[in-house]
Design brief:
mainly alpha; globular
Length: 207
Amino acid sequence: MDLNIVVAGVVFVSVVVCQWLYYYVSIFLLLGDDCLENVMTMFFEMVDSIPLDDMNDYPKLSKAYYSVMLYITKDHSAHFSSLSSNSFRFMLLTLQQGVRSVLSTISINSCTALDSLLSFVHTNCRKPKHAEEANVVMSLLQENQEILMGILSDMFHILVHEACKNQWSMSRPMLPLIIFHPEHFDMVGCGNECKFLNSSVHTHTHT
């Protein structure tokens, strides 16, 4: 299928999903209608056919995609338990790419989506209502530890070495990332980053 057609389809489905999530989600839940689940499934199936490198080459696509991710992770993180391993991995890679984006909107949406997804796992893995879905998502996250470590490393690098305009949004998912895999904090050299920050503060104080 032509990539331009897929991109157009994803943008259209993204608009539909955002509108439904915003206006009609309570009605779907009340009536037990699974059409929203079906649309989200179709959305991820279409996204899977887009090369990762092309995700940010189409401004309308990237804006629509990360907006949908923001809404889905906020109230429907359980849906990620239905994704295949490859689809889930691709989704994490898109979030990593979004975190690195120079566009504040995309970076903020990616950080917020990641925070919501990890918080869903931490909050619900022992609760009866969503324990099954949360544990499936946790297993999928465990399969992609190197991506999570890469995201954490990227965040520390951006916060310390770059002029980050959305420090608060980027700092939000850092805690659940560290809690999820504490060893990653040392593996990515965060100890050195923290020493750098402390040294900078100390130097500034005595000047």
